[in-house]
């Protein structure tokens, strides 16, 4: 059964460097990725010996060897994705953009200024992200006031390339959490019932042995009141001719004298 389950795992397809499809994760990998990211977001993690954040998953949810191999390959691919450049690829995308939108009214100085503007805002991104940002502009997927008949503003391409790069890095972090995750065996119903019973017994023991008058280690427990003390308190509380505070003070003095 185990070998059959491993053989039917949906693979994680390799990323194409020139046009990576980050949404190509199968459902099982997306679920693991999102689960670990949610745990990390909610601070349900610890720092492992390797210095990375480690989350815990039920043993039944841990990736099997085949799944781990697919995840490791994708993580290795994603580690290279955020690197800037190559410059030639970025310049090629900018060149294609300028060629598409160049008009007869633009002189060489205007063209050079526009090219330099694109280079300044895009040079720190990977070439694939710049190319994908331009493709999304042509498809009308970015830009609040999109009009493909005009060249994209530098800021629009910058934001799109940045978001694409962050998405690649976020997927790498999530899948690395999956690889670093530790499995645990959830308690059975019988084990949970036993723990509840032990907790209930401990609570009953505390209630039966502790006194409300205890004030901590070393303090004396208040002795029970004798019938005379009870009668005296009743007399004070029911005597309209004497203030309660005065009566209590009188009773305290009597107790102090008896103690001496």
Architecture blueprint of SSEs:
Elements: H1 2-7, H2 27-41, E1 46-47, E2 53-54, E3 56-58, H3 65-80, H4 87-101, H5 108-122, H6 127-138, H7 154-180, E4 182-184, H8 189-209, H9 227-238, H10 244-259
Parallel strand pairs: 3-4
Antiparallel strand pairs: 1-2
Helix pairs in contact: 2-7, 3-7, 4-5, 4-6, 5-7, 6-7, 9-10
Tell me about this structure.
It is a single chain. With 260 residues, this protein is mainly alpha-helical. It has 3 domains: 2-83 and 172-184, no CATH class; 87-165, no CATH class; 227-259, no CATH class. Helices cover 60% and strands 4% of the residues. It has 10 helices and 4 strands, in the order ααβββαααααβααα. The strands form 2 sheets. Strands 1-2 form a two-stranded antiparallel ribbon. Strands 3-4 form a two-stranded parallel sheet. Strand 1 and strand 2 form a beta hairpin. It is elongated. The model is unreliable at 1-6 (pLDDT under 50).
Order of helices and strands: HHEEEHHHHHEHHH
Specify Rg, calculated over alpha carbons: 37 Å
Euclidean distance between termini CA atoms: 84 Å
Strands, count: 4
Which structural category fits the helices and strands?
mainly alpha
Give the overall pLDDT as a whole number: 82
Give the number of helices: 10
Biggest sheet layout: 2 strands, antiparallel
The shape, in one word, is elongated
Q: What share of residues is helical?
A: 55-70%
Which residues form runs of ≥5 with pLDDT under 50? 1-6
Q: How much of the residues is beta strand, in percent?
A: under 5%
Number of domains: 3
What topology, given as strand order, has the largest sheet? 1-2
